[in-house]
Amino acid sequence: MMGCASSIHISDRGIYHSGKESEDSQNCGHTRPSARQSPLTEVQFGPMKLYEDQLQVLLVFAKDDAQSGSFTWACERAGFRCNVVRTPEAALESFQEKNHDLILIDHRHARCFDAEALCRPDREEATVMPLISAGFNRRYVENSNMMACYNELLQLHHGEIRAQIKLRACNAVFTALEQSQEAIEISSEDQIIQYVNPAYECIMGYQRGELLKENTEVPKSEKNKPDLLDNISSCIHRGKEWQGVYYAKKKNGDSVQQNVKMTPVVGQGGKVRHCVSVNRPLNDHNKTEKPCERVQAESQTDIQQFSKHKDRRKGSLDVRSTTSRGSDGSSQRRHSSMARIHSMTIEAPITKVINIINAAQESSPMPVAEALDRVLEILRTTELYSPQLGTNEEDPHTNDLVGGLMTDGLRRLSGNEYIFASKQLHHIPSHLTTPLSLNDIPPCIAQTMENEDSWDFDIFSLESATMKRPLLFLGLKIFSRFGVCEFLNCPEATLRSWLQILEANYHSSNSYHNSSHAADVLHATAYFLCKERVKQSLDPIDEVAALIAAAVHDVDHPGRTNSFLCNAGSDLAILYNDTAVLESHHAALAFQITTRDDKCNIFKNMERNEYRTLRQAVIDMVLATEMTKHFEHVNKFVNSINKPLAALEENEGSGDEDSVKNILTAPENRMLVKRMLIKCADISNPCRPLELCVEWAGRISEEYFAQTDEEKQQGLPVVMPVFDRNTCSIPKSQISFIDYFITDMFDAWDAFADLPNLMQHLDNNFKYWKGLDEQKLRSLRPPE
User: Which residue, 26, 274, 397, 525, could crosslink 681 as a Cys pair with Cβ 3.0–4.6 Å?
Assistant: First the structure.
């Protein structure tokens, strides 16, 4: 726009003015309809689906010239309905009749503005301010190029006009808020009240105008403990939802106890911009509150009854909680404090038993309650947590993932015989390469590992820099950082030799299950070990066991699933009786490799009992990566750790330190933490930054494609039919994997370890895959 003596201006209705030299006006008007666009276009506004009528454009041009013709052509190209008039009178009449969405006015013949003065580039003042004051919000330099006009119209359509449509839809949202029987309050990140609905006025006794005065903060009751207010503030500022009991202060000074759910609304840049509070008075106060409060309590009872009959995902966790929504209305997958774990319902028989016992304890005499406590303790330490698995028959991707990852393949044989394949185990090299010292790491590799303590560390850059030997170099650095050699009492040279021979037994030909995956899981494990709650739970021997388990957990992986090996009657499947075949092999081979040669035996100098403790911990963690017990492990973690911690926080604010410590350090709970830690590290790809997540998704898909190809070639049952390289939708497979396996597990792990950055990545990545899937669906739809 600079350096030009003419411009086009737009008002808040999208009105254009263009200024040049004066010409005679003409009086005429006509309509140019277009059939290029369907009458209604879907517009997604957060969870709302809006429908946009065909855009109507009014061109007010005194003369039919190149500029007028270009905009007319652009309207037809864009599929807009176009009217052309020649005089202001005709423009007003046409606008009153059709109420156009976009109006373009030729200013080259108007006298309202000095266009040349407004567009003069050497003026220092804000030359558009007179236009803004007059109601205009945009100007366009005269340009009769048709594509320039077309592009300008498209920008307006998808910018100002779409924004106006969404703003109009906000009226419907506020109407819903006004009619809601629940008390709703919206405040700024600084707790300045911005909105309350009539139900809030009724319960609290305030008038809206009294609360919306300048810088009026949310009224606080003195009955709330200071640490509770700090806890709420901390949750909100970290983008996490808070739910619990809170005292609200009414206008008359009384305090009313309420069930409150506070949800942060994240805006641009990930910053919390607003906080939405939904308040429900406790039943004990309903008798003394106003009628609207009793109606509100009855409404809440109805909602609770309805929630009991909601459809649940069979066999997996049903997390009945509300995820906070960002300013764009999309699901942010931001998760609440430990208290929200109480809303998780596990579809397993043992969970129902525990819930019944918990309910019975409330009205039982003390001896009975104590006996039931002992019963619960026994139930929480035995293997009674396997859920009743089931999937949505309409989702073949989830069905195939469950069939391929969580079964032994026997139920999918359909009469086919086993095909025995004589496979040789990967031979261990007869000699080792020259050991590499941590101090001898090349500078380019050292630089790549500078941020290895960050979750966003790029493992693929290290894979490239090390020529596909990332486990050796990352292992040296992480094991050094955690003092593993000191704990094991082994020389660094022994550790180096162990990492070298371990990496040599990973198959570089695998697209996914190679040493880069092992290094990635090792990195995630080290990251989780640094989280405060994890450090409170685990001992040094647990940390060392976790790091070793991460490094060895997929050694000698053949790039095929357990189901494939069982169907093929492989030597490994026969050896391990079709049960946890690969995981048993990984653990066994790891110790064979380690103890076979003193040069790489990192356990050589350990005391016997300590070695056996470490060995059992490593084996247990490696076996925990087997997916058939996925829901069992998550279920036990939630019931034995998350829910007791959440109960402590609800009853005692942040929880009694001794009680928390007892939960975290109980031997059976430490075992559950270690299992959960390595499980989350093993399948954390959807929680990585988007570019890393996409790369991992491509690699695992390629490995599954290769398995499907081999199954077809050998006449084996195809355990995951959707992973056909010719027809597979990678976005759909990722959506199913995240929905069925990832979301609930990381909800629980986030509630324990506090991982907001991972959950944000998970949300972003899920939206990315959903967007790709929807884009593909749109491309497959026949033209209207």
Answer: 525
Question: SS3 letters for 645-663?
Answer: HHHHHHHHCCCCHHHHHHH
The distance of Cα 575 from the centroid of its chain, to the nearest Å, equals 40
Instruction: Find out whether 87 and 40 touch, Cβ atoms under 8 Å.
Output: no
Confidence tier at 383 by pLDDT (50, 70, 90): low
Specify which residues 41 forms β-bridges with: 52
Based on the number of CB atoms within 10 Å of its own CB, is 429 exposed (0-12), middle (13-18) or buried (19 or more)? Answer: exposed
Extract the runs of DSSP E, i.e. beta strands, from 221-332: 242-249, 255-266, 272-281, 317-319
Write down the residue that tokens 């604010």 correspond to: 653
Q: What is the mean pLDDT of residues 697-712?
A: 96
What average pLDDT does the segment 245-267 reach?
82
Rounded CA separation 584/174 (Å): 58
Q: Mean pLDDT, to the nearest integer, of 244-265?
A: 83
- CA dist., res. 459 & res. 456, Å (int): 9
- Spell out the residues 6+ positions from residue 450 whose beta carbon is closer than 8 angstroms to its own: none
- Residues 699 and 509: their CA atoms lie apart, in Å, by 12
Query: What gap in Å lies between CA 550 and CA 751, rounded to an integer?
Result: 22
Helix, strand or coil, per DSSP, at residue 490: coil
Beta bridge mates, 247: 257
Does residue 208 have a pLDDT over 60? yes
Element housing 244 (H / E): strand 242-249
| DSSP collapsed to 3 states, 326-378 | CCCCCECCCCCCHHHHHHEEECCHHHHHHHHHHHHHHCCCHHHHHHHHHHHHH
Per-residue CA distances from 132 to 16, 103, 109, 163, 540 (Å):
13, 16, 20, 18, 66
The per-residue pLDDT for range 67-82, each reduced to its tens digit, is 888 889 989 988 889 9
Mean of the per-residue pLDDT values for the chain?
A: 77
Active site residue 335: no
678 vs 665: CA distance, rounded Å: 18
C-alpha span between 390 and 404 (Å, rounded):
14
Helix ranges, 3-125 (H): 66-78, 88-98, 115-118
Cβ(600)–Cβ(432) below 8 Å: yes
9 beta partners: 17, 139
Beta strands 56-60; 255-266: pairing state: unpaired
Q: What is the pLDDT of residues 431-475, one digit of tens each?
A: 334 445 667 788 999 999 999 999 999 999 999 999 999 999 999
Distance CA 313, CA 82 (A): 50
The residue with tokens 């209604």 is 40
Tell the residue number behind the tokens 């040279």, with chain if given.
Answer: 493
Above 60 in pLDDT, residue 26? no
Model confidence pLDDT, tens digit, residues 518-538: 999 999 999 999 999 999 999
Share of the chain above pLDDT 90, in %: 40
pLDDT tier at 652, thresholds 50, 70, 90: low
How far apart, in whole angstroms, are the C-alpha atoms of residue 259 and residue 338?
Answer: 16
Q: What is the largest CA-CA distance in the chain?
A: 103
Q: Determine the Cα angle at 516 with ends 510 and 519, to 5°.
A: 140
Catalytic residue among 9, 100, 107, 513: 513
pLDDT at 710 over 60: yes
Contact status, residue 502 vs residue 471, Cβ threshold 8 Å: yes
On the CB side of 391, CA atoms within 13 Å amount to 17
> How many CA atoms within 13 Å lie on the side-chain side of 98?
21
- What pLDDT does 764 receive? 96
Paired with 243 in beta bridges are 261
Provide the angle, in degrees to the nearest 10, between the axes of the packed helices 492-504 and 581-596: 140
Two tokens at 637?
């973690």
Q: Which residues have C-beta within 8 Å of that of residue 351, sequence separation ≥ 6?
A: 345, 385, 635, 639
Condensed to tens digits (0 to 9), the pLDDT of residues 574-615 reads 999 999 999 999 999 999 999 999 999 999 999 999 999 999
